[in-house]
Amino acid sequence: MEHSSVNLGQGFPDAEGPETMKQIASKAMYDFHNQYPSLLGVPELRQAVARHSLANQGIPVDWATETLVTVGATEGLAACFLGLLNPGDEVIMFDPMYDSYVSMARRSGAAIVPVRLRLPDFSVPLEELAAAVGPQTKMIMLNSPHNPSGKIFTRTELEAIADLCIRHDVIALCDEVYEHLVFGGAKHISLRSLPGMAERCVRLGSAGKTFSFTAWKVGWMTGPSRLLNPIIKAHQFLVFTVPSSLQRAVAHGLDRESEFYLSLGPTLEVKRRYLERELAALGFGVLPAHGAYFLVADVSKFLRSGEDDVAFAKRLTVEGGVTTIPISGFYVGANPPTHLVRFCYCKEDSKLEAAVERLKAYLAPAKASGGGEREGR
Length: 377
Known about the structure:
Blueprint: E1 6-7, H1 19-31, H2 43-57, E2 67-70, H3 72-84, E3 90-95, H4 100-107, E4 111-116, H5 126-132, E5 137-143, H6 155-168, E6 171-175, E7 201-206, H7 207-210, E8 219-222, H8 225-238, H9 244-256, H10 258-262, H11 264-282, E9 285-286, E10 294-298, H12 309-320, E11 322-323, E12 325-326, E13 340-344, H13 349-368
Parallel strand pairs: 1-11, 3-4, 3-5, 5-6, 6-7
Antiparallel strand pairs: 2-8, 7-8, 9-10, 10-13, 12-13
Helix pairs in contact: 1-9, 2-9, 3-4, 3-8, 11-13
């Protein structure tokens, strides 16, 4: 705000979800009581979550014993870590990662074992993953489609993860909030849908990502009752419950607004292709991705002597008027890459176009001079 920059940093969309959902949320405040609903969530939403799971991933769910509604997926993650992990447990996480994973897992007393995804396509180093599993490994944390990279884990990678979980009796926590934000011919496959994984996976979803209502903070999870029971106990003392009027609107959305969330992927693909083309023309190296709404770019050509991704992102905000996020901030392991930034492109076309014009005005001279101050570094 201080520098009036175009914000392509924060991961929230400019467009909002279906108008009918807003109307239902408002009407529900008058049609139903406004006292505590069940700590598990209103039955309408839990039933809708079960139907959504079966329809989109072929995973049957008992709505009465295998669903939980949370205050966004982030609270769901916190409840999972606090409910399932004990001091001394180890959690394997793929580096880079959404920043709340590390904080909440450590709060539970667990140790993080990072496995670094390989650049430029963020592929899984399967041998390193297998070597990371030890006697204290309790959980593998999986986020697909992936934040910050936009990567979609392949079937081969998922099968390797499933095999390790089964052989070593490990739980999998699956953050799938971007499950419908997929494009480019790719397909999202839930780890929980693979043979032998339904009984050892907890799967999370989010109305913020599925319906572009990030302010509502309504999430959900599905999983076997033996895993959900301790999670529910943690959820009870974290937040207890979730606003019932919003839950009823999300239930409608899952059942009746599939046209909206199934259109997200194609819509985002158009925006990504535009930004990808313009960034490449300026000299950015654009890393591949087929999901979520993030684009990771190599800014090596624009780094000044001694400058890393954090300094570049700050300079681009202050001087260039475009805000990104440095990728190094998403890594927990030592020596993260310092030449990458993340653009968020789920924005109005006019905002993307304004950002591109500012980038051209600020960075094109550097490109023309072959990198300016960074020559000879």
